[in-house]
Amino acid sequence: MSLNTKSDFYDVLAEKRNVKVERARYADVPRIQQMAQDAYEDDPLRNYLRNTPDAKKPPVAPRRDRLYIWRLMAYLELGFHIHYHAAFPVEHGDAYVTIGHPSPGRTKSAVLRMLSRVTNGVLNRTNTPEQRKRWEEFEDKIAAASKDAFGDELRRMLHVLNLAVAPRHQGKGYGYALMALANAQADEIRCASWLLSSNVINTPFYESCGFVVVKEVLLGEDNPTWTERPFAILIMMRAARS
């Protein structure tokens, strides 16, 4: 496998296929955002957070405006990762990964906190009461579980934030190529990695990339408005390589 993390381009051998992983450009944002939306269409967490009993009731903003605002927030988040060289697509948006590096520095941390506050503020104004309740449940449970799993070590770990592959391109090795890049970046700085998996069917894939389940969080178990079975969000970790 040939990999040069100091170049704009990464040639990765994945599933016996040569897959070119590039550093994302701002021009890639619309395509990446649409691809991710398609890839997460049937994701259990997305369905839990969006498909609430009051989802069709008129909230503060009409549904059309909410979709526009959500898309805008996704653009801002992607733009942040592109600016800090932490977003990497295949073919400019057929698949992508975003990476949170450890010890980001004061400026990046301040920008990240500001972006988080803006995002939470927008969600509070555009989401329905039940959607806000479920977002808070998700965030509180993940924060508690990740702290319990990693403690202070969390801030020294590389975080695989998002990974998505367009449905029509799944099975081509794109996911493996992107995870190979994330693992290589972690190995370069000799740190452990972690991620959240919101769909248990992806567990074997992440395990094949060196990750193991360290914590499981159940959502929907105490929510009377959720009529389906509770489902698990997995916290997974890959140990540091010397």
Using only C-alpha atoms, the radius of gyration works out to 18 Å
End-to-end Cα distance: 18 Å
Strand tally is: 8
Assigned CATH superfamily: Gcn5-related N-acetyltransferase (GNAT)
What low-confidence regions span 5 or more consecutive residues with pLDDT below 50?
1-16
CATH architecture, by name, is: 3-Layer(aba) Sandwich
Q: Beta-strand level of the residues, as a percent range? A: 15-25%
What is the CATH topology classification name?
A: Aminopeptidase
How would you spell out the order of helices and strands?
A: EEHHHEEHHEHEHEE
Overall mean pLDDT score? 86
Shape: globular
Domain tally: 1
Structural class: alpha+beta
Helix content: 40-55%
Tell me the name of the CATH class.
Alpha Beta
Biggest β-sheet description: 6 strands, mixed
The oligomeric state is single chain
Instruction: Please list the strands of the largest sheet in the order they lie side by side.
Output: 3-4-5-6-8-7
**Tally of helical runs:** 7
